[in-house]
Amino acid sequence: MVTTTLQGQSIQLLGFRASFGDPRGLLHSAPMSSSPSAQNLFARAAADAVARITGVAADFKVEAPPRPELGDFAVGCFAAAKALKQAPPAVAAKVAAEFQPTELLSAATATGPFVNFRANRAAGFRWLIDATLGGGALVPQTVGAGQTVCIDFSSPNISKHLAYHHIRSTVIGHALVNLNRAIGARVIGINHLGDWGTTHGMVMAAYKKWGAPEPLDVTAINDLYVRFREAMKADPTVEQEGRVWFKKLEDGDAEARALWQRFRDISWAEFESAYQMMDITFDEVRGESAYEPELPGVLAMLRDKGLVSESEGAQVAVLPDEKNPVLLVTRDGTTLYATRDVAAAMYRWNTYGFTRSLYVVDRGQGLHFKQLFKLLALAGYEWSSRCEHVPFGLVRIAGKKTGTRTGNITLLKAVFAEAIDEVAPMMRANAAKIDAQISDAEIERTATMVGVGAIVFANLLPQREKDVDFDLEKVTSLSGDSGPYLQYSHARCVSIQRKGGVPIEHATLTPEVLARLGNDHEWAVARRLLDFGEIVARAAAASEPHLLCHYMLELAGDFSRWYTAGNEDAGLRVLCEDLELRRARVALVGAVQATLKQGLGILGLGAPDVM
RNA sequence: GCGCGUGUAGCUCAGUUGGAUAGAGCGUUGGCCUCCGGAGCCAAAGGUCGCAGGUUCGACUCCUGCCACGCGCACCA
Question: Is the ipTM of this complex over 0.95?
Answer without folding.
Answer: yes
